[in-house]
Amino acid sequence: MKNPKVDTLFNPLQVGEIQIENRIIMSSLTRMRCDKETKSPNDLVAQFYSQRASAGLIMTESTFISERSQSWPGCPGIMDQTQVEGWKKVIQAVHNKKGKIALQIWHSGRATHSLLQQGLQPWGPSQIGIKGPNQILNIPHEIPHEMNLDDIQLVKNQFRNGAQLAKEAGFDAIELHGANGYLIDQFLKSNSNQRQDEYGGTIQGRCKFCLEIIDELISIFGKGRVGIKVSPIGRFNDMYDEDPIKLYTYLFQELDKRQIAFIELMNDKDEENAYNHGLPSSQSQTNNLFEKLRNSFKGIIIGNVGLTGEIAAQLIQTGLIDAASFGMPYISNPDLVERIRYNFPLTEANPDTFFEGEHIGYIDYLPFQQ
Ligand SMILES: Cc1cc2nc3c(=O)[nH]c(=O)nc-3n(C[C@H](O)[C@H](O)[C@H](O)COP(=O)(O)O)c2cc1C
Fold first, then answer.
1. Tens digits of per-residue pLDDT, 119-161?
2. Which residues fall within 8 angstroms of residue 168, CB to CB, at 6 or more apart?
3. DSSP β-ladder status, 173-178 and 101-106
4. What residues contact residue 226 under an 8 Å CB cut-off, 6+ apart?
5. CA of 200: how far to CAs of 21, 65, 190, 191, 246, in Å?
6. What are the catalytic residues?
7. What is the mean pLDDT of residues 12-30?
8. Which of 13, 166, 294, 308 has the maximum number of C-beta atoms within 10 A of its C-beta?
């Protein structure tokens, strides 16, 4: 029997130029199972996404745009024709099941290490390294090279090139990874961006890089197929902003002027406060993020972090969000849409198989059997 409390999730939604059949979005999940040599998605990856095609929209795992922008082995790129061909297989597999799929385009900035990118020093907005060890190597993070104006132009060109290839591959949309302490987020936030030039200082300055890249993506995909993921109060990768509501109110208003299709808005995660280093907790900065930012953007807001079907439906009914994205639940519930609709129990994911490996813990989670 259908769960009447989640009916709202099954009202179709116009997201920019894309019509989605339900409001359950699969959020981006790095699984490090792409081909390590070519850095392209393989048949296994295509199968993973195709199993999850009943989501209203799938966001791919973070996908890098240059050698310097990667940080996890086994992640895919969008830099060359081999990768385009790999992505075409994924897109075809999802489209065959009438699903929709957006590429999440990404630059890791300072959140990587020269040992993970062929000896290249990480880049960032300022010479401020992440406190704490690199997650993959378990050694201290390096101090990034502070990007000069030529570096900024180069990275903008690389985003544009990546978007062009993503378009060629046939993605329905593109999502800029502006969350979780990667390069775009590093430019936005006050603790990682202490530049004195036009790309820092004021809130307008800190948002400039992000907005210029959004403009590049719009120039390739059109405004109705561009979105961004943000984490205003997230602490992952040692992030902190002194006034996140003021910063993101400005950013949302600027994104609204550009009429992009969607913003995927991450709420906080309690456990991330482990990265606080004595700073105020994310909860103390705001406990009602969706309410504070809703009115600054008229397009689609996709709520994220720790949601269930019923909570998501309530948030949509009260108008705080328009759709909801799910990360962890999608690892082990390929049929999450059906499980939410019929109130079937969810399968727990095994964290040991989140990253790397092959099919185990990846494509062997099956749809619910009654
Ligand atoms: C294994 C794993 C990999 C993830 N990879 C990415 C990623 O590549 N890009 C991204 O934006 N978020 C990534 N996330 C975060 C999720 O997309 C999502 O924002 C987060 O898990 C919160 O949603 P949830 O509470 O529904 O899990 C990842 C999360 C997990 C658990």
1. 999 999 999 999 988 988 999 999 999 999 999 999 999 999 9
2. 84
3. parallel
4. 16, 173, 174, 175, 176, 214, 217, 218, 260, 261
5. 41, 23, 9, 11, 15
6. 182
7. 98
8. 166
Cβ–Cβ < 8 Å for 15, 57: yes
CA gap 78, 97 in Å, rounded: 24
Distance CA 40, CA 369 (A): 33
- d(CA 319, CA 291) in angstroms, rounded, equals 9
Whether the CB-CB separation of 56 and 21 falls below 8 Å is answered with: yes
Which single residue is written with the structure tokens 């996908």? 63
Contact 293, 245 (CB under 8 A): yes
Report the alpha-carbon distance of residue 244 to residue 234 in Å, rounded: 10
Ligand 1: centre distance to CA 237 (Å): 13
Q: What is the pLDDT of residues 231-267, one digit of tens each?
A: 999 988 999 999 999 999 999 999 999 999 999 999 9
CB atoms within 10 A of CB 320: 17
Q: In this structure, what token pair is assigned to residue 139?
A: 């050694």
Amino acid at 32: M
CA 231 – ligand 1 centroid, Å: 11
Pocket of ligand 1 (CB under 6 A): 27-30, 61-62, 104, 177, 179-180, 229, 266, 304-307, 326-329, 354
Nearest partner of 99 among 28, 45, 172, judged by Cα: 172
Q: Is the dihedral of CA 175, 179, 180, 181 positive or negative?
A: positive
Q: Which atom of ligand 1 is nearest to the CA of 328?
A: 27
- Spatial neighbors of 341 by CB under 8 A, at least 6 apart, are 2, 3, 6, 9, 10, 309
Please give the pLDDT value at position 343: 97
Give the bridge partners for 256, in sequence order: none
Residue 235 alpha carbon to ligand 1 centre in Å = 14
Q: For ligand 1, atom 14, name the residue with the nearest CA.
A: 29
Q: How far is the C-alpha of 188 from the C-alpha of 190, rounded, in Å?
A: 7
User: What are the structural domains of the chain?
Assistant: 4-353 (3.20.20.70)
Q: What is the pLDDT of residues 206-232, one digit of tens each?
A: 999 999 999 999 999 999 999 999 999
